[in-house]
Design goal:
Blueprint: H1 2-26, H2 33-55, H3 64-85
Helix pairs in contact: 1-2, 2-3
């Protein structure tokens, strides 16, 4: 049940980052950083980080990069704790 949700959240974050990069290159209105970070926070952090590297988008932008990595780290720790505490 959670895997389809996470797949969708990561795909949405990846696509949004790619779309924002394309809009930036064309000088069009951008997707707010708050929206991109929210997509990461609701489960799309791996997709957002993958898109950041694939599109070379917002790699030097701070505090965006630090916040994105913080979200990813928190989600990795939460997943590890859930796996460690899950009944066998």
């Amino acid at each position: 049940m959670i895997l389809p949700y996470l797949a969708a959240a990561n795909l949405a974050a990846f696509v949004a980052m790619g779309w924002d990069k394309a809009r930036a290159e064309r000088g069009e209105r951008r997707i707010p950083e708050r929206t991109l970070l929210m997509l990461a926070a609701i489960g799309g952090s791996l997709g957002a980080v993958a898109a950041q590297q694939a599109f070379r988008h917002k790699t030097r932008k701070q505090p965006f990069g630090a916040l994105l990595l913080g979200i990813l780290g928190a989600q990795v720790l939460a997943a590890a704790a859930w796996l460690a505490l899950a009944p066998a």
